[in-house]
Amino acid sequence: MVFNIGLLGLGTVGTGTAEIILDNFGRNPLLKEINIKQAGVRSLDKTREVELSADVMTTDLEAIVTDPEIDIVVELLGGLEPARSLILMAIANGKHIVTANKAVIARYGDEIYSAANEAGVYVLLEAAVAGGIPVIKPLKQSLGVNRIQSVIGIINGTTNYILTKMAAEGSDFADVLAEAQQLGYAEADPSADVDGGDAADKISILASIAFGERVKREEISCEGIRQISATDINYAEDLGFVIKLLAIAKGGKGQPLQIRVHPTLVPKEHPLSNINDVYNAVLVEGEPLGQVMFFGPGAGKGATASAVVSDIVNIVGILKSSDRRTNLDPLLSCSHQHYANLLPLTEITTRFYTRFLCKDVPGVIGYLGTCFGNHGVSLESVVQIGFQEDLAEIVVVTHDVKEGDFRQALAEIKDLDAIDSIPSIIRVL
Ligand SMILES: NC(=O)C1=CN([C@@H]2O[C@H](COP(=O)(O)OP(=O)(O)OC[C@H]3O[C@@H](n4cnc5c(N)ncnc54)[C@H](OP(=O)(O)O)[C@@H]3O)[C@@H](O)[C@H]2O)C=CC1
Ligand SMILES: N[C@@H](CC=O)C(=O)O
Ligand code: NA
């Protein structure tokens, strides 16, 4: 049998996908039954790393998603439009979908999965979260009977690459970002990586699967890494931490979910502290399983294409074994009905690292302690690290506190005469 694929996009991931399909020796035998019928791109004049015949290449993407001979549409364009409309049009034409596009699923998953369920087609997206690491399918299937308590991940390769190089080599932020772009890790608009939006897209998808509810993407609190300085990386190191961009989803026991993305001081003995470069990791905690961690390459051509093609092969396997399209496998499809209630950030409990620049007047540490005490914030450590010109640099790490109480204490501290500025506030795992 031959299963026809329509590729939308032949960039980094599309090229990797075509390469695996065309070079099938020693891989899953089902690959031999997969044919790339069309590949849709923006420009036919670009030199391509992969050779596809001229009649396969097209700029007419609508013709691909409406082609009656195409069984599976593989969306690797990125961005919201035309990706969303093409996916919906493909579904309306009875095509199964494989996509790596977390941005479109995080925002339009509701619309896309409702249409797919109606049409009796699959929308598989293993490549959309943590690139080549199997995490979507394991969460849905292998871990599906657990009550999930938390999903904590380093799920953006670009920012992990940048933070690793800044910490290890003292590299400049802009230089390392350019390297990550060159290596094909970054999004077309890299601010999605750097400002945390890509990780927020991904954690909204993971949380939705782990906790069985839809998540409104716009409700996820999200901070990126632009403000992380060499000073904080060095102080974190001295205090026994590394700085990572974490995506955190916690819930269970009928409580509202908390979902957030922010740079975090991770203790060096924590398993996530050792995840470096473009590698990603997702730490899942559930009952009765306990902890399990998924680790591997989170971006890049081959790694991401591995997940894309595995999803294609999954659908081919189903198509070969059944012709009843209306009975979707519940472990591969999405049947969420309601939206989760998210806990406001002011209600979450976490530790904080805060760096203050203070006028070098007697008793300043005492003033800080009093303000924090007024709001029930207890301190794990207070260190006067050094001086910046004539200002004393003081670093405070709190115990677990409610974020709202901590912010109120900071508002009071900002008004103290002795405080010049508060250059950094970073949560601690
Ligand atoms: N790169 C990575 O490591 C990873 C990427 N992803 C996701 O995979 C998807 C693809 O990413 P990536 O391969 O890096 O992106 P690229 O920018 O490298 O490739 C995009 C491809 O889509 C084509 N394209 C884009 N817009 C249009 C349009 N309007 N009309 C026609 N063709 C269009 C481009 O055509 P042309 O070549 O002619 O310009 C190009 O071939 C994104 O959703 C991304 O988030 C997921 C995991 C990892
Ligand atoms: N830009 C993304 C690509 C994979 O999803 C990343 O850096 O992780
Ligand atoms: Na994945």
UniProtKB/TrEMBL annotation:
<dbReference type="Pfam" id="PF00742">
    <property type="entry name" value="Homoserine_dh"/>
</dbReference>
<keyword id="KW-0791">Threonine biosynthesis</keyword>
<dbReference type="GO" id="GO:0004412">
    <property type="term" value="F:homoserine dehydrogenase activity"/>
</dbReference>
<dbReference type="GO" id="GO:0050661">
    <property type="term" value="F:NADP binding"/>
</dbReference>
<feature type="binding site">
    <location>
        <position position="102"/>
    </location>
    <ligand>
        <name>NADPH</name>
    </ligand>
</feature>
<dbReference type="Pfam" id="PF01842">
    <property type="entry name" value="ACT"/>
</dbReference>
<feature type="active site" description="Proton donor">
    <location>
        <position position="202"/>
    </location>
</feature>
<dbReference type="InterPro" id="IPR005106">
    <property type="entry name" value="Asp/hSer_DH_NAD-bd"/>
</dbReference>
<comment type="similarity">
    <text>Belongs to the homoserine dehydrogenase family.</text>
</comment>
<dbReference type="InterPro" id="IPR002912">
    <property type="entry name" value="ACT_dom"/>
</dbReference>
<dbReference type="Pfam" id="PF03447">
    <property type="entry name" value="NAD_binding_3"/>
</dbReference>
<feature type="binding site">
    <location>
        <position position="187"/>
    </location>
    <ligand>
        <name>L-homoserine</name>
    </ligand>
</feature>
<dbReference type="GO" id="GO:0009086">
    <property type="term" value="P:methionine biosynthetic process"/>
</dbReference>
<keyword id="KW-0521">NADP</keyword>
<comment type="pathway">
    <text>Amino-acid biosynthesis; L-methionine biosynthesis via de novo pathway; L-homoserine from L-aspartate: step 3/3.</text>
</comment>
<dbReference type="InterPro" id="IPR036291">
    <property type="entry name" value="NAD(P)-bd_dom_sf"/>
</dbReference>
<dbReference type="InterPro" id="IPR001342">
    <property type="entry name" value="HDH_cat"/>
</dbReference>
<feature type="binding site">
    <location>
        <begin position="8"/>
        <end position="15"/>
    </location>
    <ligand>
        <name>NADP(+)</name>
    </ligand>
</feature>
<keyword id="KW-0560">Oxidoreductase</keyword>
<dbReference type="InterPro" id="IPR016204">
    <property type="entry name" value="HDH"/>
</dbReference>
<dbReference type="GO" id="GO:0009088">
    <property type="term" value="P:threonine biosynthetic process"/>
</dbReference>
<feature type="domain" description="ACT">
    <location>
        <begin position="353"/>
        <end position="429"/>
    </location>
</feature>
<keyword id="KW-0028">Amino-acid biosynthesis</keyword>
<dbReference type="InterPro" id="IPR019811">
    <property type="entry name" value="HDH_CS"/>
</dbReference>
<keyword id="KW-0486">Methionine biosynthesis</keyword>
<protein>
    <recommendedName>
        <fullName>Homoserine dehydrogenase</fullName>
        <ecNumber>1.1.1.3</ecNumber>
    </recommendedName>
</protein>
<keyword id="KW-0915">Sodium</keyword>
<comment type="pathway">
    <text>Amino-acid biosynthesis; L-threonine biosynthesis; L-threonine from L-aspartate: step 3/5.</text>
</comment>
<dbReference type="InterPro" id="IPR045865">
    <property type="entry name" value="ACT-like_dom_sf"/>
</dbReference>
